Amino acid sequence: AVKQLWGDGDHMAEIDDMMAEQEAIHGEKSKSVCDLFRDKAVRWQLITLFLVSSCMQFIGVNVVYFYAYNVFIKAGIPPAQTHYVSLGVGITEILTTVLCGFLIERAGRKTLLWKSYTVMALALGLLTVTLSLQDSFFWLPYCSVALIFIFIMSFGIGPAGVLCPLPTEIFIQSYRPAAYVFNGATNWIQLFVLGLLFPFIV
């Protein structure tokens, strides 16, 4: 099964890790979310999962999607064609998330996260400038469109691609179901809070 998934090569180190984990959790039942909170041995994994999840929600991707339509209209894209551009943004995120799956083992999770967050922060900073000065130069709205695509690409390569398998990678088997429940609940609660606060922020 390992060869079929990863191809030919020496995978004994990975197999040894799997066997060691199987021995460690032999006969151990799946943990609940309450167990996840009570066990100090997984406290740092829980904090890491919460921070990465929170950063993904509050980095501004929802705001970029919210204002993308106005940016596209300002760039001169006809309203009847904006849904094609929006489709392009969605496809860009999907393709870069798939690309992250190929890069994650070579580049490493920390590298992908830090570099992606850096590019996203720069893109948001420049987007603020181009939106503020978009009436000054005719070409600035096109820069805003390009920055939106750069932001979405960075989001797909970094946070969107790294967060999905994270509970599997930092928790042992018995804690993984509870970790996924915690991660899902955290994401939806943060989206709910963001949805409530967003009208007051803008």
Structure description:
With 202 residues, this protein is an all-alpha fold. Helix content is 79%, strand content 0%. The chain contains ten helices and no strands. The chain has helices at residues 2-6, 12-24, 33-38, 43-58, 61-74, 82-107, 109-132, 140-163, 166-170, 176-201. It is elongated and about 65 Å long.
Structural class: mainly alpha
The radius of gyration over CA amounts to 21 Å
- The overall strand count is 0
Arithmetic mean pLDDT: 83
- Helix content range: over 70%
Order of helices and strands: HHHHHHHHHH
Range of strand content: under 5%
**Count of runs of 4 or more consecutive helical residues:** 10
User: Which sheet architecture does the biggest sheet show?
Assistant: none
Task: State the separation between the terminal residues, measured CA to CA.
Answer: 52 Å
Poorly predicted regions: none
| Overall 3D shape | elongated
Short summary:
The chain is 79% helix and 0% strand. The protein has 202 residues and is an all-alpha fold. Helix 4 (43-58) runs antiparallel to helix 8 and helix 6 (82-107) crosses helix 8.
Which secondary structure elements does this structure contain, and how are they paired or packed?
Elements lengths: L1 H5 L5 H13 L8 H6 L4 H16 L2 H14 L7 H26 L1 H24 L7 H24 L2 H5 L5 H26 L1
